[in-house]
Amino acid sequence: MSRTTVAPAPTAAAPAPPPTVQEAGRRRRRLAVRDRWYLYVPLLLALAATVLPFAWMVSGAFKPQSEILSGEVRLLPQDGTLRNFRDLFTRVDFGHYLFNSAVVAVAVVLGNLLFCSMLGYALSKLDFPGRRVLFALVMTMLMVPTVVTFVPLFVLVTKMGLANTYGALILPFLATPLGVFIMRQFIAGIPDSLIEAARLDGAGEFRIFFTLVLPLSGPALATLAILQFLSSWNEFLWPLVAAQTEDMYTLPVAIALISASANSVNYGLLLAGATVVVLPVLGLFLLLQRYFVQGISTTGLK
Amino acid sequence: MADKKWLNGLVLLATVTLVLAGCGRDGEGSTDDAAGDVSAVADGPATGKIVIWAMGTEGEVMPQIAEAFEAENPDAEVTVTAVPWDDAPTKISTAIASGQTPDVTLINPSALASYVATGGFSTVPDDVVDKGVFDETAVAATKVGGKAYSVPLYVDTRVLFYRKDIAQKAGVPAPRSWGEWAGFAKSLQDNGAKQGMLLPTGELGFTEQVLIPFIWEAGGAITDAGQTAFTLDTEQTAAGLAQYRSFFDAGVASKTGTYEPWGSVEERLASGEIGSVIQGPWLVPSLKKILGAEYDDKVGVATIPAGPSSGASWLDGGQLAVFRDAKNADGAWKFIRFISQTAQAARFSQLTGDLPAVTAAWEPAGLTTDPTTAVFSEQLKTTGIPPTIATWTEVANVFAGFGERLARGTVTPQEAASGLQKELSGIGLR
Amino acid sequence: MSSTSTGVRAAVRGRAPAWRRRQALAAWLFALPFTLLFAAFMVGPLLASVGLSLTDMTSRDLRTPLAVRFVGLGNFVELAGDETFVRAIGNTVYFVGVGVPLTVAVALLLALALNNGINRFRSLFRVGFYTPVVTSIVAIAVVWKYILEPDGLLNQGLGAIGIGGPDWLNDTRFAMPSLILLAMWRNMGTLMIIFLAGLQGLPADVYEAARMDGANALQRFRSLTLPLLRPTLLLGCVLISVYYFQFFEEAFVMTEGGPLESTLSITYFTYNEFGYGNYGYASAASYVLAIAIGLVTLVQFRLLREKG
Q1: B42-156+316-381 has which fold?
Q2: What is the ipTM of this complex?
Q3: CATH number of A92-300
Q4: pLDDT of residue C10
Q5: Cβ A192 vs Cβ C8: under 8 Å
Q6: Which subunits have 3 or more CB–CB pairs within 8 Å of chain B?
Q7: Do the beta carbons of residue C259 and residue C78 sit within 8 Å?
Q8: pLDDT exceeds 90 at position C278
Q9: What residues in C contact B99, CB-CB < 8 Å?
């Protein structure tokens, strides 16, 4: 994924940056792994230690319950089985929960991308009364622990008649302060001259936003997409409470339900469920990781 | 944060709104108003949609009873939503808070009073079921302040499971009294079990269920008869707690014992990691599954060894309650009436492995011939009912905390008895 | 905090008021969807909970929420005298005080190593170090309990080099360090990416000059990288502090706040009180946390901003 050999295609939009450490490094790049063993060896060890629990989770998904509980340390399953995965899809309507989770996560991501970037643009490039107050308010909410608003939020959602609907699962997560922070910081970095030029050409604010600002905000949008997808996908407590019938459950709730349905935990099933759940997120990260770094880079330096 | 003024303004606004709204309760205990309760269930078959929340195995098999119900009541449609046990309290209390509830939910007796205190459950209409068909203690556990708020579905209590083969090798019979108990556990430990017994320490949901019976067995009580005050700072409490602690001091139980986190109780008993444990009836099918034909040789079951006063054990079980905000209370009560019929209760028991609260259902469910069940049946005659108080979860957590301190030896039984009294009195009963 | 580009301001000032009104209108249209959702689903419930914290509301009042008693700051006074809450504050401070510097340091080390001469397997490293972030907490609980068991993976590993490890999660001295280790493992991936991004934006010519002047790697790190990276470090520290102050999940799935309340955090305390139905009291406790987070964030801004 890294672009060490391919020259980056110059995007018309990107303001020409000064040469960075990374680019300077590229000139001296052809160093073999051997010359840098003192970096690679500790890093690989750290990587192994970091990935080990993850690997054990995946491996456990293929183990029968008895082998997981035997206490023996064995990374590869001795008695590999697909039963946990089969159970996952046959014992419950796992496909349906997958669908629910996907609907909710996609709606949450898209909503945040649009609404947070719209507000981010207004906050960073437009002047309007109440701007400072609004921004301060949003930033303050960044620091409020989620437990604080849980019960009042639930009462609100049910009074709105949204209990047990997709709306209940989606709406409370459409406006996240972190998203505004990221988008505002990023858009502030887009040169004013570009926007002024568009204005002089007679473009309205909405046209500027959709045809100029949004296309330039790719990295920040990718960052936001990953973060929002991750939090929506793994959210447990809210869907548990907001979904009142099983057909509205999302994946994490369904997994909690089936893995602990009897009086003891079915570890194999739980790990299989967790493995299935993690795949889309990991895939998304793989896909967007380069933009992710860029997005944070531009945001963090403001 | 440049602008702080807005925040001050908003706080002020919220405060004023609250004050203007006229705070202050109109008298304590306003929950026993009968509004919303139905006194009788209408005649004729049930109609409309009935939504039921059920947890665990019961939640998995409830749809089968629902199908039979729908066959008899063609105009009714039952939806069963399975809920994880651990998360049920959150779900139920948020539902009550919003008024957006299902019609029926399964609950534990110990949780009943706290929901009743919110006014979330209806009282049971007189003509739903004949109370005489149920186990007496199970019926007693459905009452809060003298009124019944739920109908018992199944009962369970805790007995002593032990490794019969190891006990035979050691030549010791199952203990009948406190005096024989520690020696029994020691013999198991000396003859192959890694730990003589497993006692929960600090684990909420288990510790209080094992710890409190020790107090009962010593003749103590958690509250006075009217459940108006805690009565724990007594010699009997201290004696019960001392008995619990003695197993840790003697080294026959792990000071950090837990039932749940890693490796289930049944796996550990089957593997000999523990020699004995106090557990409920659901352990039987799981043990049979692990041990197969070896079950009869390896697993012994006995009633709880008696203390100076009794051999009381914890009474638990499942009950069905109807929400006051239920959209179809009539249908809900009719479903409860249906599942309380002997034939349905027996079928439900066969599907779940539960002991039915309907005593007549034991025979058709095939429970009267089973020797293990006989022990549970015997134990059910000597059980204590956990107090039906609104603050139960908080109270149970304090018990669990003292259990942990006793096990680790950081408090004496006397200190624990007075500590319990002091902390629990601070929490109160309602 | 806010820094609208002066260019826009100047331009706006020069124009006719009508233009300005149009821009303000457009801005509010942009802000409207977010603001409506934000007001309904965040500010509204927040205000309700502020109100809640000033009352003695419990679950017994759920169906008649307006019939509660107004107790002013009574809940906060009671909290100050609550031994368990005071212990929870201590535990939270311990977790944040050790966890934040440790996680920041490890993430920075990883980012520096990855940024200085690692040109093979870059994606592998990035994704590898990020896997803990995406793993769901239920799976983490199972796997880490297995690792930290008395005869689990960690102690077997320690045993191989002759060290007898403790019963990590059941020992009051080791439970918190274990959870800090777990939190570090879970969060260093995110911070590493943030720092990596910051490092990649540093100007190369300054480094070349420093190298010419004969500055060694350590000197370059101390006098160039650290000061230049200050804004990124600030972002990372603030994000991780806000998150660590809300320390809950790890303790919830691993220790349930034990042993002997040694891993009970403020959020955990709040969660418990909500569970007991003491809503007013729980809300008050959560505001203590919110205020603490706000203060620490301010201090961090001061410390890391001024010197830059």
Answers
A1: D-Maltodextrin-Binding Protein; domain 2 (3.40.190)
A2: 0.77
A3: 1.10.3720.10
A4: 46
A5: yes
A6: A, C
A7: no
A8: no
A9: 63
